Amino acid sequence: MERGKYIPLFETKEAKGRVFYRLFAVTVFLGICCIWAYRISKMPRKGEDGRWVWIGLLGAELWFSLYWVITQAVRWKSVFRCTFKDRLSQRYKNELPEVDIFVCTANFKIEPPIMVVNTVLSVMAYDYLPEKLSVYLSDDGGSDLTFYALLEASKFAKHWIPYCKKFNVEPRSPAAYFASKSNLDHSHHNEVWVDIKKLYEEMEDRIEIATKLGRIPEEERFKHRGFSQWDSYSSQLDHDTILQILIDGKDPNAKDIDGCALPGLVYLAREKRPQHPHHFKAGAMNALIRVSSKISNGPIILNLDCDMYSNNSLSIQDALCFFMDKEKSHDIAFVQYPQHFGNLTKNDIYSNSLRVGFNVEFHGLDGYEGPLYIGTGCFHRRDALCGRKFTKDCKFEWKKDDDHKTPKSILELEEETKPLASYTYEENTQWGKEMGLRYGCPVEDVITGLSIQCRGWKSVYFNPERKAFIGIAPTTLPQTLVQQRRWAEGDFQILFCKYSPLWYAHGKISLGLQFGYCLYCLWAPISLPVLYYAIIPSFYLLKGISLFPQVSSPWFLPFAYVISTQYIYNLAEFLWSGGTILGWWYEQRMWLYKRTSSYFFAFIDTILKMVGFTDSTFVVTAKFIDEDVLKRYEKEIMEFGDSSPMLTILATLAMLNLFCFVGVVNKVIMNGSIFRLCKTMPLQTLLCSALVLINLPLYQGLFLRNDKGKLPSSLALKSFVVALLACTSFTLLC
Ligand SMILES: O=c1ccn([C@@H]2O[C@H](COP(=O)(O)OP(=O)(O)O[C@H]3O[C@H](CO)[C@@H](O)[C@H](O)[C@H]3O)[C@@H](O)[C@H]2O)c(=O)[nH]1
Ligand SMILES: [Mn+2]
Q1: Model confidence at 181, in pLDDT bands (50, 70, 90)?
Q2: According to Swiss-Prot or TrEMBL, what is its membrane topology (predicted)?
Q3: Most Cβ neighbours (<10 Å): which of 5, 353, 461, 649?
Q4: What pLDDT score was predicted for residue 557?
Q5: Phi first, then psi: what are they for 460, rounded to 5°?
Q6: What is the pLDDT of residue 278?
């Protein structure tokens, strides 16, 4: 390749068919305007019955419309990216930058150590110069079991990495590799394969036995000095910094069985004290940023959750194409990959795949200054993450002036580095404010990404054919709802924080991206109009009062047009993103459930937090479940299983709609014709029936099931009584 001539390392293509989409969106918008016109012109006058209900409906419809406009922003200007990895390696050969990989884990009980080390092994085996790769595991659980697992993994890596490279295997998480059918069928069923599998299984056994027993074999304890650091350990929330360099990447003797260099491997449990807030994952990440700066100081950082293993051994090269292009890279701060999940059922019963988000919306965000940072599967430029502003003369030289000139012993290096992970280190500094990940928000990732973009940087969304990372999605309804609640709460808080996409970001990022952020930041308040729509029209249906136009009225047309096109378009988008029809139906259900429970509670939580009543926490999502639950999950039977307030709301709403529906059916049987009902109150009838239909699994969970995943009978009784009371008092009083 000719030196000096500019050859791009990546390409950005605009989505096709934008013009058609925009025309379509305009017609829908006209329909929406007609709906407003209907609401305003037909509003009962002051003193007339039903005025407040109409005002409520108008409010809800205005909210929906505003939100619809926002969803258009992320469909308006979509782009797609592709990279040229071969050019990258030709151009830079051995001058590629060092890359530091951060894996976070928090609790060995719900994030099993064997899963964590599989993630670690998958990234250690990246097809990248091992001398330029360092892997850091942050263990917020401060568990010697996790440390033991990592120690085992550091030994196994000496066999695993050369094996992966020799046979060019994918994926490089051993568990995923041995479980994958394609690798079973036509893999090199030779001795090497059998040997490596045996080695893995032995390691797996040792780790799992230790995890089950809750302690490490006594003899292992003496073998490695690292365990002595637990001598002063009192609890997960009260211990000194534990730092252990398991493989020193700089050590010429750190070699795999083939004599090739190994990537660095470091275990860190930052110091924690009960009175001192540790700021959850953000705190862990900031400690890692500082600790790694002393040890390897790679200018590029990859951040992964402990369940997200690498599924593509060339992802680093892909990401570097975005960071190392001579002309287009200077302002790129991070490259975000989508999250994929390996444990979804065929129709994705809890709608966890976030299909449309990753296949449509994120491409839309990428058309502006780029996607949000979503905490995992994201490559960062260290400088940008540490608070640097982007200015026109930010040009990067990737060659590093080596500041570790005098080689130190591991012990010295560890002792020098430890203070960086102490909780006092951050006192009176900008960490958590202007440096590193932001504190105080349950979605530390999104707010951090926003603050980076507000400092003039851009980001890139890269969604390659072969999935780069695969993680674990929640497998029960309560887990999904809790996760969604944390996200909705965090995103809503961003709206009021210093970096609010509404005011602070104005002028710093484009209007389109401001809208893009609002798409997520407004999840919590959208719960209110959804709740309104899920209750009021059904009540009025029961009473026989119409709130929407009749079929014969011309006003019916805009409603019919907007509703039908939106659902058809939504279905098409879902199928196009790789979903199934049943999966779409499940998504409609989860759409409703998230809004009426998670988002609603997130709304309340945020308000309470603002008044100073509560503080947000981070409920870590469980990454494994027991056999019984797993069986139901695989059969796509909804798992309720507890009686949290969120499930109580869902059950009560479902019962309420059932009563209204039964009440109406009863009336029709007694004295009316179904035909007349559909003519006079078509939309209310449709809405109420759809709500009943979508809630079928809930009724089953309340009354028909006997397994452990059903709803508790106390909750069934509660929701039954509350809904009945609500319906009767409404019909009698209003
Ligand atoms: O005190 C804590 C709590 C969590 N974690 C780690 O943070 C990651 C994410 O936690 P998880 O319970 O899996 O949450 P999810 O909802 O699946 O995570 C998504 O949403 C989070 C923000 O809400 C982001 O931090 C994550 O990166 C993103 O994947 C996991 O690796 C945890 O081990 C910590 O290191 N320390
Ligand atoms: Mn997770």
Answers
A1: confident
A2: Multi-pass membrane protein
A3: 461
A4: 97
A5: -130, 140
A6: 95
Exposure class string for 632-654: b at 16+ Cβ within 10 A, else e? bbeebbbbbbebbebbbbbbbbb
Whether residue 536 contacts residue 734, with contact meaning beta carbons closer than 8 Å, is answered with: no
- Which residues line the pocket of ligand 1, CB cutoff 6 A? 104-106, 111, 138, 140, 280-281, 284, 305-306, 374-376, 442-445, 483, 486-487, 490, 618, 620-621
The single residue of 140, 256, 305, 491 carrying the catalytic annotation is 140
Active site residue 307: no
pLDDT digit string, tens, across residues 377-405: 999 999 999 999 998 877 777 766 555 55
Question: Taking phi first (over 0 means left), then psi (-120 to 50 degrees means alpha), and beta for anything else, what does residue 70 get?
Answer: alpha
Distance of alpha carbon 489 from alpha carbon 616, whole angstroms: 9
Q: At 146, which helix (H) or strand (E)?
A: helix 144-167
In angstroms, rounded to a whole number, what is the distance separating the alpha carbons of residues 263 and 334?
23
Distance between CA atoms of 207 and 155, rounded to whole angstroms?
A: 13
Angle at the Cα of 166 from the Cα atoms of 162 and 167, rounded to 5 degrees: 120
Task: Name the one residue in this structure whose structure tokens are 């603002």.
Answer: 610
Question: Could you tell me the two tokens for 175?
Answer: 């568990």
Q: How many helices (H) and strands (E) does the chain have?
A: 28, 13
Name the E strands within 142-241: none
**Looking at ligand 1, which residue's alpha carbon is closest to its atom 30?**
305
Q: Does ipTM top 0.95?
A: yes
Q: Is 90 exposed, middle or buried (0-12, 13-18, 19+ CB in 10 A)?
A: exposed
Could you tell me the distance, in angstroms and rounded to a whole number, from the CA of residue 427 to the centre of ligand 1? 24
Q: For residue 602, what are the contacts with CB-CB under 8 A and spacing of at least 6? A: 484, 485, 486, 487, 488, 489, 492, 523, 524, 527
Q: Whose CA is nearest to atom 10 of ligand 1?
A: 620
Tokens of 691: 């709500």
Average pLDDT over residues 518-532: 97
Ligand nearest to the CA of 479: 1
Q: Which tens digit of pLDDT belongs to each residue from 92-102?
A: 988 999 999 99
Distance 489 CA to ligand 1 centre (A): 15
318 catalytic per annotation: no
Q: d(Cα 280, Cα 444) in Å, to the nearest integer?
A: 9
Of the candidates 571, 562, 558, 569, the residue with the CA atom closest to the CA atom of residue 20: 569
- Residues 6+ positions from 611 with CB-CB distance below 8 Å: none
Q: From ligand 2's centre to the CA of 713, what distance in Å? A: 31
Strands, E assignment, 205-308? 242-247, 264-269, 300-305
Beta strands 469-471 and 340-341, pairing class: parallel
Q: What 3-state class would DSSP assign to 332?
A: strand
Ligand 1 atom closest to the Cα of residue 620 is 12
Secondary structure (3-state) at 99: strand
SS (H, E, C) 575-630: HHCCCCHHHHHHHHHHHHHHHHHHHHHHHHHHHHHHHCCCCCCCCCCCCCCCHHHH
Report how far ligand 1's centroid is from the alpha carbon of 573 (Å). 29
Residue whose entry in the numeric block shows the structure tokens 């001795």: 191
What's the rounded Cα separation, in Å, for the pair 303 and 61?
40
Amino acid, res. 283: G
Task: State pLDDT tens for residues 122-177.
Answer: 999 999 999 999 999 999 999 999 999 999 999 999 999 999 999 999 999 999 99
What is the model's pLDDT at position 189?
60
d(C-alpha 536, C-alpha 528), whole Å: 12
Is the Cβ–Cβ distance between 265 and 135 less than 8 Å?
A: yes
Would you say residue 406 has pLDDT above 90? no
Which of 306, 618, 619 is the pocket-test mutation for ligand 1 (most atoms within 8 Å of CB)?
618
Q: pLDDT at residue 42 above 70?
A: yes
pLDDT on residue 670: 87
